[in-house]
Design a protein that fits this description.
This protein has 102 residues and is mostly helical. It has helices at 6-15, 19-31, 36-47, 49-56, 60-66, 75-82, 96-101.
């Protein structure tokens, strides 16, 4: 993976504090096929695990474990992590055009 400049990471971390940007960031990243735990990890770490823990009332170690790709969080846990961003997991129909391209 290409190394990012410090300014780029700081800029992204600042942008990830904006709730509207976060929603769009999460949705776009998931549509691109990134694992949800990787996306949530980036957002939550930019926000600060300790601060996010207070907001969600989930202990920090549990958050860190939930965003670790080596673990398998429940749907309930993922929804609790998504709720502060106004998001939740859902199922949608596959567009026939998407299906034929796969």
């Amino acid at each position: 993976m290409a190394r990012r400049a410090k300014d780029w990471n700081e800029g992204l971390a600042k942008d990830l504090r904006d709730p509207k940007f976060v929603k769009e960031f999460i949705q776009a990243a998931l549509e691109e096929g990134l694992p949800i735990q990787v996306v949530l990890g980036k957002v939550i770490r930019a926000y600060g695990v300790k601060e996010f823990s207070k907001k969600t009332k989930i202990p920090g170690p549990n958050i860190v474990r939930a965003i670790d790709p080596g673990h398998n969080p429940t749907q309930e846990t993922l929804n609790r992590l998504l709720r502060p961003f106004g998001l939740k997991l859902s199922v949608s129909l596959i567009d026939k055009r998407e299906k034929s391209a796969a």
